[in-house]
Specification:
CATH topology of the largest domain: Fumarase C, Chain A, domain 2
Distance between the termini: 42 Å
Strand content: 5-15%
Oligomer: single chain
Structural class: mainly alpha
Helix content: 55-70%
CATH superfamily of the largest domain: Fumarase/aspartase (Central domain)
Number of strands: 6
Order of helices and strands: HHHHHHEEHEHEHEHHEHHHHHHH
CATH architecture of the largest domain: Up-down Bundle
CATH class of the largest domain: Mainly Alpha
Length: 449
């Protein structure tokens, strides 16, 4: 059995293997090399270096992350260390590696490539979450339950309506991720302060050819680094997504309370080390905990926009922590959300029972509307129904009984009309059509993204 020695839990506990591999030191170095080689090809294509280097550069040996970071101990610079190692392994063309480039031509362009793939992974998982919620919304279109505001019973809804709200919200995050890419996934090949001076009149051609090879479009203009607002936008969008997942997880946590018992994580596991009976919503709680981490990282990402003049080095150390963490944390949160939804227990009997907890008071608005329809001014109807609702609570009687015994109500509503108003099936409004509209919106986003 391997001993776990890593300090950071993202190395072994959270995040998928696929994303961890993408963000591994070796893959980052390999992606740096990919950019360096594309640049050499562009220099050869534009006539700045011998044309044979266009093909010769592909024959270079590999460089390991261990080699780079060992050499960095003496050079104090990771990209400089990489270029020294590549130069030693690339024959006569090795002397042209990194010609005219600055470190962040390589770093920013490499991260554009890594982020393109990382966002594909995240988007695919988000799409699966949305589709799972669509399925639940359809399945529970007509599953009646109490709607709650301020933690109190408000009006009847269906569980499908509740799920459809999450379908809509998460589809908006998918849209944001799609729109983000046109600003974030761009290459930066422009030299020391962004002027392309080292390449003379060929600067734009070098940029164009390098990025063509890599399948990227360029930033319109940069300093020594690409604008850091892209990373801030990424962190903000992912934190919004994490918070939406947190809201869904909190829903499951709240509704799994024994006194509510409407939803629960239907997984057999040890809930407590000492209380055998407990069924703790631990996956939902982990989603909420991870979301707190994401929200905390947004401030750092926004602070990261502020660099001196054409750049300073304050962004470097922060981004080594920030980018992998936001990606791996949201990756785990999405994995957990999928697991939670796929193993979600629904107790429709508890929902029906809870609808009756307030003895009909959950339909007080329906009664008020009926009275207004019969000619009573709204404010008067509200005052009368409020008084009768409080009486129902104080006397512990069914709201129907209180309503039928009231002289004012009796003047306006028959027994049949009172009973009709107190039937939750009659007071769902456009619930079904709204579910369909939310699903249609999500389907359109899923097609487009």
């Amino acid at each position: 059995m391997n001993t776990i020695t890593s300090i950071c839990v993202l190395d072994w506990r959270y995040g998928s293997r696929e994303l961890r591999r993408l963000l591994s030191p070796q893959n980052i170095i390999d992606t740096y090399i990919r950019v360096e080689k594309a640049l050499v090809k562009a220099l050869a294509k534009t006539g700045i270096i011998p044309s044979k280097c266009y093909y010769e550069i592909d024959k270079c040996g590999n460089v390991s992350a261990e080699e780079v970071y060992e050499l960095e101990k003496s050079t104090g610079h990771d990209i400089a260390s990489l270029t020294i190692l590549l130069a030693s392994k690339c024959g006569k063309c090795g002397k042209y590696i990194h010609l005219g480039a600055t470190s962040y031509d390589i770093v920013d362009t490499a991260w554009a490539l890594i982020l393109r793939e990382a966002l594909r992974i995240i988007e695919d998982k988000l799409k699966r979450v949305i589709r799972e919620l669509i399925e639940l919304a359809e399945k529970h279109r007509n599953t009646l339950m109490p709607g709650r505001t301020h933690g109190q019973h408000a009006l009847p809804i269906t569980l499908g309506f509740k799920f459809a709200n999450y379908v809509y919200e998460l589809s908006r995050s998918l849209e944001r991720l799609c729109e983000l890419k046109k600003r974030l996934i761009k290459g930066k090949i422009s030299g020391a302060v962004g002027t392309m001076a080292a390449w003379g009149k060929h600067g734009l051609d070098v940029e164009s050819e390098t990025l063509r090879i890599l399948g990227l479009s360029p930033h319109s203009i940069t300093t020594q680094v690409a604008p850091r607002d892209g990373y801030a936008e990424l962190a903000s969008i992912i934190a919004i997504l994490g918070s939406q997942l947190d809201r869904l997880a909190l829903e499951v946590r709240e509704l799994s309370r024994p006194e509510i018992g409407e939803l629960y994580e239907a997984v057999e596991r040890i809930g407590s080390s000492t209380m055998p009976h407990k069924r703790n919503p631990v996956v939902a709680e982990r989603i909420s905990g991870l979301a707190k981490t994401l929200r905390g990282l947004v401030v750092s990402a926004i602070e990261n926009i502020v660099l001196m003049h054409e750049r300073d080095l304050t962004n470097s150390s922060l981004e080594r922590i920030l980018i992998p963490h936001i990606l791996l944390v949201i990756d785990q949160a999405l994995e957990d959300t999928l697991f939670m939804l796929e193993n979600l227990g629904v107790n429709a009997k508890a929902m029906k029972r809870n609808l009756s907890l307030t003895k009909g008071l959950i339909l007080s608005e329906a009664v008020m509307v009926k009275l207004v329809e019969k000619g009573l001014p709204r404010h008067e109807a509200h005052s009368i129904v409020l008084k009768l609702a409080r009486r129902s609570e104080e006397e512990g009687k069914e709201f129907k009984e209180i309503l039928l015994s009231d002289e004012v109500v009796a003047k306006y509503l028959s027994r049949e009309e009172v009973e009709e108003a107190l039937n939750p099936l009659n007071y769902l409004g456009s619930c079904d059509r709204l579910i369909s509209r939310a699903i249609d919106y999500a389907e359109e986003v899923l097609r487009r993204c």
